[in-house]
Amino acid sequence: MVAQTELSEAEVDRLFHALADRTRRDIVRRTLLGERSVSELAADYAMSFAAVQKHVAVLEGAGLVTKQTRGRARIVRADPEQLARARALLDAYAELWRGRIDRLDALLADDD
Description:
This is ArsR family transcriptional regulator. The chain has five helices and three strands. The chain is an alpha+beta fold and 112 residues long.
């Protein structure tokens, strides 16, 4: 079993659901470079403002971004700590598979 790296099963599901969409991955990338208002984000996509808001809500629900109100603007900022937890989870899966491959290599070497 792979260690959950501080994430529950439900959190892992939300995290990978959020990252499964190209627009949401792009929003995370852009907000890692610097905070953006939802309006700034929406200006770069061929979709409605409401659709971008929904994408941001999914990312926020997964903990990948935070949203803060400043006056009339909603400012979106990526959460690098949540991304680090996601990376740690993927690293744990990679280590699991490397271990399985190493054991398979050892079994095949024993047959020689």
